[in-house]
Amino acid sequence: MATLYIDNRPYDVKEGKNLLETCLTLGFDLPYFCWHPAMGSVGACRQCAIKIFKDENDTAGRLVMSCMEPVGKETRISLDHPDAEKFRKSVIEWLMTNHPHDCAVCDEGGSCHLQDMTVMTGHNYRRFEFPKRTYVNQYLGPLINHEMNRCIQCYRCVRFYKDYAGGKDLDVYAAHNHVYFGREKDGILESEFSGNLAEICPTGVFTDKTLKQHYSRKWDFTFAPSVCQHCSLGCNIIAGERYGELRQITSRYNGDVNGYFICDRGRFGYEAANSVDRIYQPALKEENVSLNQEYIINDIAALLSTSNCVGIGSPRASLESNFALQQLVGNGNYYSGWSDEEHRLNKAALNILQNRTAEIVSLKQIEQYDSILILGEDLTNTAPMAALTVRQAVRKKPVENAQQNINLATWHDAALREYIQQRHSDLFILHPHSTKLDEIATQVSYSTPHEIAAKGFTIAAAIDATADQVIDQIATSLLNAQKPLIITGTSLFNEPLLAAAEAIVKALKKRGKQPGIFITQADCNSMGLAMMNVPPLSSAFSKLSDSTLIILETDLYRNLSTEKADEIMNLPKRIIVFDHIKSTTSEKADIKVPVGMFSEADGTIVNNEGRAQRFFQVFVPKNEWLKESWRWLSLLKALKDGKAIDENLSISNIQSTLVEALPQFRGIEDAALSEDFRLNGQKVPRAPHRYSGRTAMLSNENVSEPKPPQDIDSPMSFTMEGYRGIPPSSVTPFFWSPGWNSVQSINKFQIEIGGPLHDGNPGVRLVNSNSSITPIDFEQKTEKISLKEFEWQLVPVYHIFGSEELSAKAPAIAELTPKPYLGLNQYSLAKLNLQENDMATIEHHGRAYQLPVRLRAEINNEVALILFGLPQTAFFVKPVIIKIRPASNGITNNNSKHE
Amino acid sequence: MLSIIRSIWLTFLHLFHKTETIQYPEEKVQLRPRYRGRIVLTRDPDNQERCVGCYLCAAACPVDCIALQATENEEGRRYPEFFRINFSRCIFCGFCEEACPTYAIQLIPDFEMAEYDRQNLVYEKEDLLINSQGKYPGYNYYKVAGLDAGVKGKGEGTNEEPPVDRHSLLP
Ligand code: SF4
Ligand code: SF4
Ligand code: SF4
Ligand code: SF4
Ligand code: FES
């Protein structure tokens, strides 16, 4: 503890932090541009000037940049000193000499850090009369808009894009007062984290291009705290609605999960909610009957009570919806929608966490580990934010060294990067193909999934060996690390990989280490579904014939081979699908019932580390069908049982039945405050207090304003009325504080800058030490798969854009989705007599498919890569052996078409 | 007693004053140009819509009776896709006009807006947009803004330098 005198008043503060973040932690308003809590200080913008004094007798003091000055044992500073104030005001005035007269047409306006800082310093009149500097803009792809005139040269963008996120294609060009932030030439930004530029840039240079299509000011949104639905990590997001349409996703700070950032799939995938593929109206396959709501619901209820029902749950539906379906069809009739392989993989992932051999590592905690082994997971594309945290983790050791050797504080960003250069702590990647993280890895090797698993067991054995000398480099590194971490996942559909990861952590534990484990999965609620402990689809077969099958928010054709899925779809008498988006399954159903997507629904999902997180409904859609699946299913249950319908069924009602029936979920009620929580007797408003147009937005329909919708599921209101001030973290719909309109207002919501939110980071870890766990038998087979002539082992390649079901429906994401291809190495190409871009004919299950070939030089001879999750590659659902037809000279393979 | 007589006397004197009351509607009232009456959306000197859909008027409106949606044409020019004022709520305070950075929205000296049906007091953009620059002729926002929205190229606006050559390191 140190004492900091600010304008002669003493404060107890932490030593070693910089003065800027200390002042902000204490609640002072001090302007800044280039400093960022996650990226540290470089002292580039000169905006954060304050006076510092030698001792109490020093009255003159000297001007310093508060972001570059550490807190000493006893430091005396002044924020209000006239010199400092004048300096800060002049800095803004200089910045503004070239700033365009753009606020009215600038997407940043209303959430602009530059506007805020200009007001804060008091600069209000332009004295400079000479011409303004101008720039031409660049096309940066469908996600980010570029308007370079507005730049204030703070360097935050390149520091984030290049230094923090490892991007290569955004840089600084030209010199002196002409510096230009952009790409070498026009083109799509390559980084998976480019969307964060919109939040990082304190001005309107980089803005969200998808928002531009339906632009609204920050003050006009209705926001809700939500959780990203596009991978298993469960990053926290803020979802914003205006005029009944989901329009924007921004990151919601959570110090345990995603920190300040989210990936581009999470930020731009939201447009799926407005896509043409949404199901808005119920549809009956045969009769052209009235689609009256009551009629359909009663029809379904009648069906359910006359026939035996089977339910198929979903890893992308909320816990509550899965549970409501389980309740409706009865415990023994409820299945997970996973293939056997996926079922086993997800059970294995859960089992490893539950065994508690290793520390369960949260996304953000990855940054604390100093030797990392990635076993068969292409993080950048399957769990993008984990790749970003791994990039920070590999800096851990060098940063510590810098601290020890030259006493450099962790926030001294430019100096640190200069000192560290390319050094990084150990990162080992074992994967079938090259990944973006390879560039920061100590060692990479490309092999088949089975070989990776085998290598994993070798490492485990090497660690386990009582021999003093461990020869394996990876094993040595893991053993020597303070905190070793194993990252693996289910994306290669290879169970032995998980077994190997488990073996390694066990071995490390035996040698007295505290290893961490991080396992990624496919969907946002994969872990929740695994915890529900329900049998996979294959067990349902015997019950299906003549039944009524209810399929909840899942596409069987993504999880099963077409033949298998067809077989299931042909057995039942009736198939009812509850989903918000069209899929092969929904189009084949007899009855299709539309339900709400995450923006129109409340629910809880469990992320890959077993953290239950609540997402809140953002707005009440006009379409009365768009309600939570659990609401429809509970209604059906009441009808089926002949019970009274509870109009006011709230999420906590269903949660309490849920934890009673499934005690492993005890704690989900605490993932967010319950609906009867009030602050000073008031609800928390979802809309900012300057929300406009209330008495006009619906007046074209009826000049009398309707009663605002009530929220029975949360302590938040759908309007601007309610408590003003900082709400509890789990129900914080947006970040705003007086004088801080931009995202930078997050400073006011944290206990300490960069630390947890005021009443703790939201979310509850459900997987805790549980003695009643029976370890499952892992499939450990790691022998080489024997391949015949012209056979290859098909291995999935994921792409951040396209491989995930929902986000792929967003137009901007669809634009960036790569074309499907078959990746082969030189040897395989030669063997097949194929050239790059030729069409290869794949034979699988007696059908033939055609895909263009791409050379992937790094992969093994036995491996063929295929882009996962695209409609064109849907025949591929798990690693399979395929046969590829060699091209006979001169004759193209076109005897069959892929579907 | 004295005061009553004084009052009667003063009232009597008013008989000989100039009358303020006019025979409306037969006789029309003369209003000053800055009178805050009916709200219009004006056009710029190029006869284009002035409104750039910045939402500032809507935010400034104390009764929240302005709702609009901004959109863009192919050249990047912002304009309102719809612009609605619910005059049954409007209090004619003029805050919107004050907030408008482009002189688009203006209050004019016309108050004859009475309707029998309240619904008819909801004005859409077609009802608001007039073919004139209103009180502030000559101002063209896109000429002074930095944005290239098809009105002028980068560096061609008032008081702008030609665009920077980013491949040059020369001073
Ligand atoms: S960056 Fe901020 S200050 Fe600059 S034009 Fe945009 S809103 Fe205005
Ligand atoms: S583009 Fe934005 S982040 Fe980059 S230097 Fe300019 S103002 Fe700063
Ligand atoms: S990493 Fe996953 S959870 Fe996080 S934003 Fe991206 S897709 Fe969403
Ligand atoms: S303030 Fe002016 S430019 Fe902005 S939306 Fe209103 S009328 Fe249009
Ligand atoms: S924030 Fe301190 S110099 Fe930029």
TrEMBL record, chain A:
Residue stretches making up the 2Fe-2S ferredoxin-type domain: 1-85
PROSITE patterns per the UniProt record, alphabetical: 2FE2S_FER_2, 4FE4S_HC3, 4FE4S_MOW_BIS_MGD, COMPLEX1_75K_1, COMPLEX1_75K_3
Keywords: 2Fe-2S, 4Fe-4S, Iron, Iron-sulfur, Metal-binding, NAD, Oxidoreductase, Quinone, Translocase, Ubiquinone
Organism superkingdom: Bacteria
InterPro entries for this protein: 2Fe-2S_ferredoxin-like_sf, 2Fe-2S_ferredoxin-type, Asp_de-COase-like_dom_sf, Mopterin_OxRdtase, Mopterin_OxRdtase_4Fe-4S_dom, NADH_UbQ_OxRdtase_75kDa_su_CS, NADH_UbQ_OxRdtase_ferredoxin, NADH_UbQ_OxRdtase_Gsu
Cofactor(s) for this UniProt protein: [4Fe-4S] cluster; [2Fe-2S] cluster
Catalytic activity: a quinone + NADH + 5 H(+)(in) = a quinol + NAD(+) + 4 H(+)(out)
Keyword Nucleotide-binding among record annotations: no
Gene Ontology BP term (one): ATP synthesis coupled electron transport
One Pfam family matching this protein: Fer2_4
GO cellular component terms attached to this protein's record: membrane
Domain 4Fe-4S Mo/W bis-MGD-type, residue spans: 221-277
4Fe-4S His(Cys)3-ligated-type domain boundaries: 83-122
GO molecular function: 2 iron, 2 sulfur cluster binding; 4 iron, 4 sulfur cluster binding; metal ion binding; NADH dehydrogenase (ubiquinone) activity; NADH dehydrogenase activity; quinone binding
Transmembrane feature ranges: none
Binding partners and assembly: Composed of 13 different subunits. Subunits NuoCD, E, F, and G constitute the peripheral sector of the complex.
Family indicated by similarity: Belongs to the complex I 75 kDa subunit family.
Protein name: NADH-quinone oxidoreductase subunit G
Native species: Solitalea longa
From TrEMBL, chain B:
Catalytic activity, EC: 7.1.1.-
HAMAP family: NDH1_NuoI
Reaction(s) catalysed by this chain's protein: a quinone + NADH + 5 H(+)(in) = a quinol + NAD(+) + 4 H(+)(out)
Bilayer disposition of the protein: Peripheral membrane protein
Residue span(s) of domain 4Fe-4S ferredoxin-type: 42-71, 81-110
Organism: Solitalea longa
Entry coiled-coil feature ranges: none
Keyword terms, alphabetized: 4Fe-4S, Cell membrane, Iron, Iron-sulfur, Membrane, Metal-binding, NAD, Quinone, Repeat, Translocase, Ubiquinone
SUPFAM superfamilies (UniProt xref): 4Fe-4S ferredoxins
Gene3D superfamilies per record: 3.30.70.3270
Entry GO terms, CC: plasma membrane
Main function: NDH-1 shuttles electrons from NADH, via FMN and iron-sulfur (Fe-S) centers, to quinones in the respiratory chain. The immediate electron acceptor for the enzyme in this species is believed to be ubiquinone. Couples the redox reaction to proton translocation (for every two electrons transferred, four hydrogen ions are translocated across the cytoplasmic membrane), and thus conserves the redox energy in a proton gradient.
Gene Ontology terms, MF aspect: 4 iron, 4 sulfur cluster binding; iron ion binding; NADH dehydrogenase (quinone) (non-electrogenic) activity; quinone binding
Enzyme class: translocase
Cofactor needs: [4Fe-4S] cluster
Gene (UniProt): nuoI
Protein name in UniProt: NADH-quinone oxidoreductase subunit I
Family: Belongs to the complex I 23 kDa subunit family.
Subunit-level organization: NDH-1 is composed of 14 different subunits. Subunits NuoA, H, J, K, L, M, N constitute the membrane sector of the complex.
Gene Ontology biological-process annotations: aerobic respiration
